[in-house]
Amino acid sequence: MATQLSFTTKPKPLSSALHRHPKGRLASLLTLPMVWLVGVYILSLAMMLITAFWLTDPFTSKVKPGFTLDNFASIFTVPAYLAAALRTLGIAAAVTVICAVFSVPLAIFMAKLAKPWLRNLLAVAVTVPLWAGYLVKILSVRIVFSDGGFFNWLFGPLGVHSPGYGVTVTIIALVYLWFPYMAIPVYTAVAQIPPNLFDASADLGAKGMRTIRTVVLPLLTPALIAGSIFTFSLSLGDYIAAKFVGGSTQMIGTIIAQNINLNPPVAAAFSVVPIVIVLAYLLAVRRTGALENI
User: Fold this and answer.
1) 70-88 per-position pLDDT tens digit
2) pTM as predicted
3) Are residues 238 and 208 in the same domain?
């Protein structure tokens, strides 16, 4: 009696199929990221840009598809809008400069002079703002500079009082928020500078400040640019700080928040302003060649 044998073919695993098809493997890896990048991020920016050219009925406030440059023109013709844009640009530049000025000596001290336990303590202190939520940090700054806050309690007996909620406190709050994004890359860059460069500079007669100016700063330029991209762009797009500690200070984000329901095309046009400024800054930096070393 003949024995009839039957063979069952096991389904081949997905990994084997992907191994035989490199293009399919590449597509499986890139599909979800590309859906997010193109379908959510780029498409949202494109829709925002299109909305910036639409019309708003002056009587019903209803948005109608169309094409007009009045929304962009209002940025320059409405004094409050132009002042808010220039003020935001100045605040972002001030925050970036302050972060850079403080981060360079701090990084040199941490990387080259501080003992290990002090270096670790300072590293923790620098990164503490990253541990708390954004709104928590803004509220802490608000409490510090309130009339009965810590600043007046500490310096009031010396005749120094809180500047009050305004541009100054807004800059302080943004420096507090974004300083780690400048300090960390600068510290990393300083730590990579060979100690013999400092010794050679001293042997040639250069004192501390001249060594920093002629040796350290040129080597730190890529790190400073990398940090400035974060501090500058994040400050441009912020409006929570101005809302809670800025008093009557208006920034670009404030104008966008005020118009997002009343006049969405104007809000969309103003949203383009930080993007254009950041792109212009990146192009200017790229022309210097500094981005190639980041």
Assistant:
1) 888 888 888 988 998 999 9
2) 0.80
3) yes
